[in-house]
Amino acid sequence: MRAERCVNETHITGLRTDLIVCPQCDAAWSLERPDAGQRAVCGRCGEVLIEPRRKAGKQIIALSLAIAILILAAALFPFLTISVSGATNSVSVLQAALAFSDGPLVLLSLATAALIVFIPLARVLLSLYVLIPIVRDQPPARYAAKAFRLSEALRPWSMAEIFVIGCAVALIKISDLAEVSFGPAFWMFSTLVLLVVVNEAYLCRWSVWNALNKPARS
Ligand SMILES: [Zn+2]
């Protein structure tokens, strides 16, 4: 069982590094660093504010590498195979997303490819760029704070999981008309979605920002 410790509410005066603001309800608390295995939660809404984990950095890096490889493979391998009266066709995610790239729907094609492949890939690469120096106890990489902020800003636009759910629903609907089977990329995408969820749970954002506050490499 994990020990929890609430921090005390206080007033904000000027720019202070001894305060932490709850991202959920905006309550400001005086900062009390939890020990390993403990976590600090917001006393008003219960949002987890700080949850440091020993060796979490290496686990996040390993997961991020696995996610990057899976995204690339899942984009290129056949996603599904459709058979209708003897004719069979299999298609990869990138082929499907870019199928309309020479018509008026080119923007839709590019947006689809970005949301399900390129934005998730960019987030993984940005977090690797930020985390590898921190985990190796080196000063933060150049522009690491901007990279981490961009990675956080892209989070709502990373939609691989929505794509997998949408495909599953669409396939159930057309299963009466044609014989549909999943290719290797479908299972890669499904694994990928699970790994992203675990990765997000491991990442303590306060710990990353705290490490990035150390002087940058010149
Ligand atoms: Zn709160």
Keywords for this structure?
alpha+beta; 2 domains; 8 strands; Butyryl-CoA Dehydrogenase, subunit A, domain 3; single chain; binds zinc ion; three-stranded antiparallel beta sheet; three-stranded mixed beta sheet; 218 residues
Give a structural overview.
- Helix 1 runs antiparallel to helix 3, helix 1 (56-76) runs antiparallel to helix 6 and helix 3 crosses helix 4.
- This protein has helices at residues 56-76, 93-97, 106-135, 144-153, 160-174, 184-202, 205-212; strands at residues 4-6, 19-21, 28-30, 39-41, 48-50, 78-84, 87-92, 179-182.
- The protein folds into two domains: 1-52, no CATH class; 56-212, Butyryl-CoA Dehydrogenase, subunit A, domain 3 (Up-down Bundle).
- The chain is an alpha+beta fold and 218 residues long.
- Mean pLDDT is 83; it is low at 9-13.
- The strands form three sheets. Strands 1-4-5 form a three-stranded mixed beta sheet. A three-stranded antiparallel beta sheet has the order 7-6-8.
- It is built from seven helices and eight strands.
- It is elongated, with a radius of gyration of 22 Å.
- The longest helix has 30 residues, at 106-135.
- Strand 6 (78-84) and strand 7 (87-92) form a beta hairpin.
- Bound molecules: zinc ion (ZN).
Brief synopsis:
The chain is of the alpha+beta class. It has helices at 56-76, 93-97, 106-135, 144-153, 160-174, 184-202, 205-212, and strands at 4-6, 19-21, 28-30, 39-41, 48-50, 78-84, 87-92, 179-182. The chain has seven helices and eight strands; from the N terminus they run βββββαββααααβαα.
